Amino acid sequence: MLLRRVFSAATACAILCAGFTACSSQKYPEGSVEYAYDPEAPSLYEEFADYFDVGSAINPWDLTEGTNEYEIITNQFNIYTYENDSKPDHMHPSEDVYNFENTDKLVEFAEQNGKKVRGHTLIWHSQCPDWFFYDENGNDASADLLVERIKEHVTTIVSHYKGKIDTWDVVNEVLDDGYGLRFSDWLRLVGDYDGDGDDYDFIEIAFRAAREADPDARLIINDYSLESNTNKAITMYNMVKAMLEEGVPVDGIGLQMHVGYDTDVQLVRDNMEILAGLKEINPDFVLEVTELDMNCYTWGNEDIEVDLTDEFVEQFDNTYKELFNIFLDYAEEGILKTVVFWGYNDGASWLNGSPAGRVNHPLLIDRDLKFKSAYWAVINTPSEREAQ
Ligand code: XIL
Question: Which residues form the signal peptide (predicted)?
Fold first, then answer.
């Protein structure tokens, strides 16, 4: 059954050429199939080239030439986000120190290989050094001081990568899970700075500074649960609509999409539809999927070893497949431009280890860098659709 699912005209040749072996490890249930790492396997970004860019979060060590990891990331993806190294704590650890070295390497790698880079992220409440929020006496920074710092931080970083970083997550996770804006230090200290009645001024200031520093970069507001929390999607829609009407240069919304294997795909489609409505205000408005992965555990579950039964793997693969069919629909409408996975192999995913010892399998490539059946389910979606 699994065999039938993974085979299609598009991939049969690659699979047959590479050969396959019966499962010998504990990764798959008995009787299923595990593929050896296959450098000749088709390429995700090439298969989806007519629709959207396909990327991955990576780390500096993935850029070591000659390794399987390097082969996979160059063969499979055409856009990259650093998992941690372009965040405020790494890039701007203290007021006078900017740390560009690692992101420079990613940009150089991208230039040499004809790839794109997403900058993640300029303004975030997490992985952000405290110095931003205090004055020289250790008191809360004044609104003026923090606004100056936001401008300086955004301008310095975005200018450094002018013409080199294609897309910036200008702000990350600024919404609350209930309603409205997250009560972060950015919001608390900057507030309604211009006195016009709204309190998203720190966001507005960051976007305006980013646009000025690199007029050609795509500027994104990125958040999680937008695909599952309809209140949050509506809040995002309303806030971005107001910002667009005021001329704030927001080019698109990033949906992180850290979803579960049992996620409600109809809800994903419906919530994306809400956000896609912003195209009526700006015809060039885009949506991006920025951090896709699929947790094998449900919320609140404390288990550490999921049982990868045939039924489980089938549901997991189908959810991935249905998501990609939704992505293809939105790409055909001209609004979805990018799909980035949060990592590329299960062993290195941030979803392992919490709670301690947890083994997770959220991606398309397993711990041994072998392509999973989910990889084939996903990569076949464009050809299956075109064959219909
Ligand atoms: C995560 C990284 O994957 C981890 O390595 C790090 O310890 C914490 O941050 N939303 C985001 C990402 O925007 O930056 C987060 O990345 C995952 C959730």
Answer: 1-24
